[in-house]
Design goal:
7-stranded mixed sheet, Rossmann fold, about 15% strand, alpha/beta, 18 helices, 2 domains, homodimer
Chain lengths: ~425, ~425
């Protein structure tokens, strides 16, 4: 009997979750200390019936029923204690440092965890956390963006497509390569905006400039593209010169709040996640100020079905200041106050899962190089981020929304979406 | 000088609106009493620079600049006073009773009014009004629906299409007739839902049954369709029998809150406007209860960009209990709490304007018949409702949203929308 965990002594374990775990494959194969058993079973309880096993040394707690898709191997009790205290933060910290390993398919294991643990903001605590995360002043925003996007173009070249498009691709057919899918996405955005030659377009958060250049090259528009990442802007300007597009595409190293001029179209792909809820009104005012009476706009962003803060570890290590909004937040706070009208919304989350799959495959193939450029914890952190993001999109934990909008009073809006699909993307 | 309105004596007229009106075409051609002039100029002030003239007898106040598209002829001072007190309610009341006439294009004049006067809910008064309009108990809902939909199928036959589809049509091409456009809409809804033969569909608020019958006939699904309009259900059942579809389409005279069973798809076209905000949670619970884990749903409804109560007169005479919601209200109150995920949203407001144009043309051609069935005020009320609705959609005062959604965790969602457009609608 000494080899059986004493479930009755577990604090807070009144239900049968843990006991059911014991009856199924959850029986520990060997026993650690009594404390190890208690703490590991509490963690098991936290992840509910997730189809993964938890292991500390030889102590293994499997899922209630069915086969686990992987095993989370916790290296030591200190890590276990940290996981219990702040699971969403410490999982990433431990993985990054090698204090936690995932045996089996990493994405499948993370999917299993996402399916049973929810980030949804409940109660005043989460609302307070959201309110406190008001870190998007001009300086803070620059710091946030610098943290992620200025770590070296060479690094991103290892695993992004040739044009360094670092947002969800669009796989118009099953055999599309990442390169084809990114090009299709750029074209899809232009089609949704119904760009016409000679029009003026402003882009907020232009990354390495691929969309701005595509718009000018393929659709004959003039573009002013804003970004506060110094490395990205430098690269984008160089591309514009190399392509002979510098007279039609102006890359500006500045904050979206400083956009001036008047435009036929406003476009932002993958910036809104960095804006922060408390600045949505400011973004709405910018759009309202710069958009022509017959203008239209486009927002492409990672979102949620329900309000929730970004995963604490991702916020700490990957995207400081990041927040994926819900549609009501975007429509209610950015568009509605300025009578901007939703024309078309599409959810592309499965495209993002596929995009991330491509990125991770390339990243894994380049891991040695990443280790050399940075170090092992960095390589592990980014692998976890890419795998975790893929899992978040396949499980519906995250969404990818494309929102096309127009001035409320203009009738120059597309009457049909058929034109988007007449020619292959 | 006696023939000049004494603008300086106008209470509350501190700005130059009225004076500018005088300098332009707004000069009264002849003068009523001083009081008439005061009150008419106040009304002029209320509608701001709307491109219409206001007339009381020979007293005419034109727009600040430009030519008016029509003249609102107020028959007597009592009507003018009522208009000043409660403009949105009394405009309709006066028009209906013949105390107000619109010379010129009725839709153009209403568009002009919509462009300068806003229904947007501002401040606590409007929020209170919204809160007070909690009139959607099972009995109240039945009363509301009876008021509009049970006034006689013969009446609707006069001006709707042959299948009595009383919601926004889809004009797939410019030359589409109303009949073609309504058929295209039914098919478009089915395509968006990606209906497969043998699937189970529940419809909430099925009107005269056209969509339910189309789904069963053209897509081989089994349908249970709910409606609390007695006349509509009776008609729909008769149609099902006549078409030999009674074994696959069940029409049920009951409230959406009483839907039972499990379904692959939930669909509701044109019911949400009658549900009332305070019942959105109940609707969400119904959808959550009856939808399969891989199920998807569809909501088609008249909406707004910004929260606002329905026009007071429309609420009194046409749609008691009606409320056109915003997207944040629909997504935030119906979908999000149950982790239902937005897949696709489309705004079809210009299609509704065109639909209403068809309905009004047919209605006008049948006016004598309507007068015989009912009376002159009824005929005038419905003409105003149809013309006003057309104007609301052309000016962007109202929207028509189609929202496709799915369970948050299912990956059986369409990866592309191209399939909607491969075959002609």
């Amino acid at each position: 009997m000494a080899s059986q965990p004493n479930t009755s002594s577990l604090p807070m374990t009144s239900s049968t979750q843990h006991e059911r775990g014991q009856r199924a494959s959850g029986r520990p194969s060997r026993v650690g200390t009594a404390a190890d058993r208690v703490f590991l079973s509490l963690l098991r309880r936290y992840i509910q019936d997730a189809q993964v096993s938890l292991a500390l040394g030889d102590l293994v707690y499997g899922p209630t029923s069915g086969e686990p898709v992987g095993t989370i191997q916790i290296r030591n009790r200190a890590t276990l204690m940290r996981l219990l205290a702040r699971p969403t933060l410490e999982f990433g910290e431990a993985y990054m440092k090698g204090d936690l390993e995932v045996a089996g398919d990493l994405v499948a294991a993370l999917e299993a965890l996402y399916r049973t643990t929810s980030d949804v903001a409940r109660g005043w605590w989460h609302r307070l956390a959201l309110w406190l995360d008001r870190s998007h002043s001009l300086n803070a925003a620059r710091h946030n963006i610098h943290h992620h996007y200025d770590i070296g173009n060479d690094f991103y070249r290892l695993w992004l497509d040739e044009h360094l498009v670092y947002t969800c691709a669009y796989f118009a057919h099953d055999r599309a390569s990442l390169e084809e899918a990114q090009r299709a996405k750029l074209e899809y955005v232009c089609r949704k905006l119904r760009l016409q030659p000679g029009e003026r377009v402003v882009e907020a958060g232009c990354g390495w400039g691929a969309l701005a250049l595509h718009m000018a090259r393929e659709h004959g528009v003039r573009v002013r593209a804003f970004n506060i990442s110094h490395e990205q802007i430098a690269y984008a300007r160089e591309q514009a010169r190399a392509e002979g597009l510098a007279d039609r595409v102006e890359f500006i190293e500045d904050d979206y709040r400083h956009i001036t001029g008047r435009y036929d179209a406003f476009v932002s792909v993958g910036m809104l996640e960095h804006v922060g809820l408390e600045c949505y009104d400011a973004l709405g005012r910018v759009i309202d100020r710069v958009l022509d009476p017959n203008g239209r706009g486009f927002l492409h962003f990672i979102g949620r079905n329900r309000p929730a803060p970004l995963n604490a570890w991702i916020r700490k290590r990957i995207f400081p200041g990041g927040y994926p909004p819900t549609l009501p937040q975007v429509v209610g706070l950015i568009l509605a106050p300025f009578d901007l009208s939703v024309v078309d919304i599409e959810n592309l989350r499965l495209h993002y899962a596929r995009t991330l799959h491509h990125w991770r495959s390339r990243f894994e193939a380049a891991t040695d190089c990443v280790r050399t450029m940075f170090d092992e914890p960095f390589a592990r952190a980014w692998l976890l981020y890419l795998a975790g993001s893929e899992a978040a999109f396949t499980t519906g934990t995250m969404q990818l929304f494309q929102v096309l909008f127009a001035r409320g009073a203009t009738n120059r809006v597309p009457i049909s979406r058929k034109d988007l699909y007449v020619r292959p993307l």
